[in-house]
Amino acid sequence: MNDLARYSRQILFPSIGEEGQRNMLRSRVAIVGAGALGTVIANHLVRSGVGYIRLIDRDLVEWSNLQRQILYTEEDARRQLPKAIAAQERLKDINSTVMVDAVIADLNLDNAEELLTGMDAIVDGTDNFMTRFLINDVAVKYRIPWVHGAAVSSRGMFAVIKPGVTPCYRCLFPNVPSGNGETCDTVGVLSPLTDIIGSFQAMETMKLLVGAETTPNLEQIDIWDLSSMQMDISQGRNPNCPTCGQGHFDFLDRSSGHQVAYTTLCGRDTVQINPRHKRELDLKKTAGNLLKSGKVSVNEFLLRFSPDDGVTIVVFKDARVLIHGTNDIAKAKQLYAKYIGS
């Protein structure tokens, strides 16, 4: 079969055509987050023939994900697979000609530049402001366009950010919001909403890759009320913006205090702990050490440990830990020190 034959219906669309399709086949895109938005975005970009997709996610597949995270199955939840790996397996079955690079990691200032540079576009499939500010720092610093998206309850939004052309994310949202606000885990989210917002993000990404005009708006949609609002942000660049106006990349600067080792995952009764130094754990050895203290299950990507403290501890190969069953950082620190070490 001709390499382009599978994309024939897309090539027939005049704004893409054969040249645009070849551009996509040569393109590299990073998707940050493989949850509800990320799975929709990845699904469309892989089917559309984006040649290289780097899929970055820190979490594993859980039963509550299956309502809206379209690449996952019950078997993925039973196997306790990292989302990046489960998505990679499904995407390879969809289009084996696309290179899907699965990265099991929490995007942070230690790895963001390594993981996001060299890309033609970055797409936001995250669920938190701190990661978006970090993406924005890398995007502005290296002049990489990115597509922001968010979805919660019945409401969603998306926008295209082109460094040097449009306002950056920090122009639009100058400060990290205080408090946790609404999240999918506190007020829920409708599956059709994440499909819609993720599909719009994928479409805007494709426009970037073929050199077409993208939306100049911050687009907002409520699918329950069937309402929408377009806010023209094309003239919204702030010359005094610390990021794009002054070139201060605070979220890549360790001295700024923006990155923290201990993070509560809003609404999930979970604390994430990042190791102080890069290292790789021997999961089987770690599992052996923990067997005397509780129930342990392990696969090649992570181990799941249930001690007698009413919590479940998930340990990844990079020594990152999720402690489910508490949002008390002090307690999480104690458990980490007790079972994993300093």
Describe the protein:
- The protein is an alpha/beta fold.
- The protein has two domains: 5-256, 3-Layer(aba) Sandwich (Rossmann fold), CATH 3.40.50; 262-339, TATA-Binding Protein, CATH 3.30.310.
- It has twelve helices and 14 strands.
- The protein has an eight-stranded mixed sheet, sandwiched between helices.
- β4, α7 (129-142) and β5 form a beta-alpha-beta unit.
- The longest helix has 20 residues, at 191-210.
- The model has no long low-confidence stretch (mean pLDDT 91).
CATH topology (fold) name of the largest domain: Rossmann fold
In the CATH scheme, the class of the largest domain would be Alpha Beta
End-to-end distance: 55 Å
Sheet with the most strands, sense and barrel status: 8 strands, mixed
Proportion of β residues? Answer: 15-25%
Regions with little confidence, pLDDT below 50 for 5+ residues: none
Q: How many beta-strand elements? A: 14
Principal-axes geometry comes out as globular
Radius of gyration over alpha carbons? 20 Å
Strand order of the largest sheet: 3-2-1-4-5-6-7-8
Give the count of structural domains.
Answer: 2
Question: How many separate helices?
Answer: 12
- The SSE order reads HHEHEHHEHEHEEHHHEEEEHEEEEH
Tell me briefly what this model is.
This protein is of the alpha/beta class and 342 residues long. Helix content is 32%, strand content 21%.
Descriptive keywords:
Rossmann fold; TATA-Binding Protein; six-stranded antiparallel sheet; 32% helix
Helices and strands in order, then pairings?
Layout: H1 8-11, H2 17-25, E1 28-32, H3 36-48, E2 52-57, H4 74-79, H5 83-94, E3 99-104, H6 112-116, E4 121-124, H7 129-142, E5 146-152, E6 155-161, H8 169-172, H9 184-187, H10 191-210, E7 217-222, E8 227-232, E9 262-265, E10 270-273, H11 283-290, E11 295-298, E12 302-306, E13 312-316, E14 321-324, H12 329-339
Parallel strand pairs: 1-2, 1-4, 2-3, 4-5
Antiparallel strand pairs: 5-6, 6-7, 7-8, 9-10, 10-14, 11-12, 12-13, 13-14
Helix pairs in contact: 3-10
